[in-house]
């Protein structure tokens, strides 16, 4: 789980290359945590990129 609002989450999961969900349930989409963490590690801006 994250502490992100729906708008931010929708923006991130809509980005090119973000892993597809494993399954979509009535409660929502479910992703592979390992795949999401790998995507974050490759795509998160470093602190120096935020200057």
Overall pLDDT metric = 87
The structural class is alpha+beta
Q: State the low-pLDDT regions, or none.
A: none
Rg, please?
A: 12 Å
Report the helical percentage: 25-40%
- Assign an overall shape: globular
Strand residue content: 5-15%
Total of helices? 2
Report on this model:
This is DNA-binding protein. 0% of the residues are buried. The chain has a domain at 13-44. It is α+β, with helices and mostly antiparallel strands and 51 residues long. It has helices at residues 6-13, 33-43; strands at 23-25, 28-30. The protein has a two-stranded antiparallel ribbon with strand order 1-2.
Short note summarizing the structure:
With 51 residues, this protein is an alpha+beta fold.
Keywords:
12% strand, DNA-binding protein, single chain, 51 residues, alpha+beta, two-stranded antiparallel sheet, globular, 2 strands
């Amino acid at each position: 789980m994250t502490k992100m609002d729906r708008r931010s989450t929708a923006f991130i999961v809509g980005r090119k290359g973000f892993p597809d969900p494993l399954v979509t349930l009535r409660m929502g989409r479910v992703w592979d945590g390992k795949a999401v963490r790998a995507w974050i590690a490759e795509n998160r801006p470093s602190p120096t990129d935020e200057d």
